Amino acid sequence: MAVEPAEQPPTGLIASVRAVGREPEQVNTGQRWGFGAFLLVEAVFVLSAVFITALASTSGTDIGSSVAFVLVGSVTPTVLAAAVAVVVTYVRGNGPWRDLRLKWDWADVKVGLKLGALGLCLTYVTLLVWSRVVGDSNATSAISELVDGTALPLSAAVVMFCYVCFLGPVCEEIIYRGLLWGAIERQRWSRWAAFVLTTLIFAASHLEPLRTSVLIVIALPIGIARLITRRLTASVVAHVVNNFLPGLTLLLVSLGVMPA
């Protein structure tokens, strides 16, 4: 009697995306957090940003001209929010490695690198078209506007580069494609629903209405990395790769090596 060969796992990006709908959902047992945890984290982000802005105003400091407030105002809210997200997984779940799918896998790194490179291309084309439609001044990000016109010393410029390229992507992935994605999975919604919702919320949460459509395009390859691997490693790598050239440009502009 002939034995039918076992079904092989899908290979390639397109095959992996097609296989998403055929694979069963995976829900963490012992996870006692959901959308409330995400709302808490978002509240921490917003309130910390408001507090820093209010502190600068009451002290008479111009955030746009203060190197310290540029760094603190850019870095602190995101890092603090991500830290709260990690704490939530310890207090109400199994910890970040299991709940947020932070398992390390070299295959995921390769997926992240490929989709990150794709994201760079999409970002470049999108920004090129967007700048012609709305103008160069409206195509810049909030961080670029903060740094614009501010002469950052070498140490501050390096810190900003590390944040934009590495620390920021890790923290944002923990919040959106980690905590928020996990909250959606807990409701047993489809992975496609998690992908769409996290992409839209990620773009809207930057509070840059004119750039929301651009941010959606930027977030698509990053979300796909999370979608097809089911782990956060791939989306973190894709996010880092996508932010590298903009971060490097920001560093060179801040140092005066490149024109603004």
Ranges with pLDDT <50 over ≥5 residues?
1-9
- Outline: globular
Strand content: under 5%
- Could you spell the SSE succession in H and E letters? HHHHHHHHHH
Class by SSE composition: mainly alpha
Work out the radius of gyration.
Answer: 20 Å
Compute the average pLDDT. 83
Distance between the amino and carboxyl termini: 72 Å
Mind summarizing the main beta sheet? none
What is the assembly state of the chains in this entry? single chain
Number of strands: 0
Helix content: over 70%
- Count of DSSP-assigned helices: 10
Summarize the structure.
The chain is mostly helical.
Keywords:
mainly alpha; disordered N terminus; CPBP family intramembrane metalloprotease; CAAX_protease; Rce1/LyrA-like_dom; protease; membrane
Account of the 3D structure:
- With 260 residues, the chain is an all-alpha fold.
- Residues 1-9 have low confidence and may be disordered.
- It is built from ten helices and no strands.
- The radius of gyration is 20 Å and the shape is globular.
- The relative contact order is 0.16.
- 71% of the residues lie in helices and 0% in strands.
- The longest helix has 33 residues, at 154-186.
